[in-house]
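User: Fold this; tokens only.

Assistant: Input:
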Amino acid sequence: MKIFHGFSTIFLTLLIFTMNVEGRYLFHKNQNKGSSSLNSVSSCVFDVKTYGAIGNGSTDDTPAFVAAWKAACAVESATLLVPFGFTFMITSTLFSGPCKPGLVFQVDGILTPAVGPDNWPKKDSRRQWLVFYELDNMSLTGTGTIDGNGQQWWDLPCKPHRGSGGKTFPGPCDSPTLIRFFMSSNLRLSGLRIQNSPMFHVKFDGCEGVMIDKVFISSPKLSPNTDGIHIQNTKSVGIYNSTIGNGDDCISIGPGCVNVDIDGVICGPSHGISIGSLGVRNSQACVSNITVRNVVIRDSDNGVRIKTWQGGAGSVTGIAFENIQMENVRNCAIIDQYYCTNKKCVNQTSAVYVRDISFRNIKGTYDVRSPPIHFACSDSVACANITMSDVELFPFAGELIDDPFCWNAYGVQETLTIPPINCLLDGMPHLASEENVYRCI
């Protein structure tokens, strides 16, 4: 038995050695094939420097990125690598599919456009920079930074300047969205620092199945139109564990959005988390099943809000704002169906129907320049089924404002709120019997 055991040990050792030798041989054999081998670990990582990117922050590295994308797109579970320690400058670029599933665009270094509108190539779109189109099962991730060099765009004379003595002048004002996902599905955005966008930082349009986790988005408080994350015509979205501070909405939810879950976000300074604006130029807007929970909003012009234009159609339904901490926020909870960006808007009878909205466990402090609660609903299309529960809002500084504003808003207080909200109307509006007119299909 001992002899047999010793023979077995020797045989097993030789077998393992043979396997190791063969494994090393196969690895080097595959490695020698370069990018042509799909079995090699190295062949699945497409480093932009291998394709000629310089990474000095001034050389145009666009051709290298396009070549690396084309190669990675053709390989399942491939990674396009933007390596740490370099700054890559590329121009407005379309990264289009379809690609093999599992593609990862990994930014560990710094990725940036040219500085300012004067250096923007005339042949390129001035409305978008990085565009990801017709992709499925793709990730944009990494430990690096995507920096939009936005300062010169914010300083254009046609931009709204809110600083001391600032003025706005007419003129062309196109500015690029930094990152746009368009007509794509099963997307993941994670880990990155995204900052100083000329306009929106990240935009999802016509997408389905979006996961955003642990991103850090920042631009100065007075940078105009720099929404952090904007979604429209997009379904099944999760936005989690992220920090956003900018000059406009932290998160804005446009028309056509369904099933959006926002959880664990720190927002501010900003314009808060907004649904809308909706119904602009008499359009139909349909938004439903939106949950915003476990969120901190600080030093912001708004907290959580719904904003619609007069003359619109459609509906906003099934909206839940829960467990939200306000810190020095104006308009902590706001529904505004008279949204207008100038003084020329006229009253109209049609409106986007707002119903089934809940505000639960909303606590903290507000800026006394505005009432903390403001529900201004359409004269002809009342807001219905607003629920208030465990709302406790106190002045950040100054005296308590005890007159929240309501207009044509129907709802209930499940618990006593601070300040008291006695302006909600009881029951349901007559419109409730005519909901089919406002139903979204």
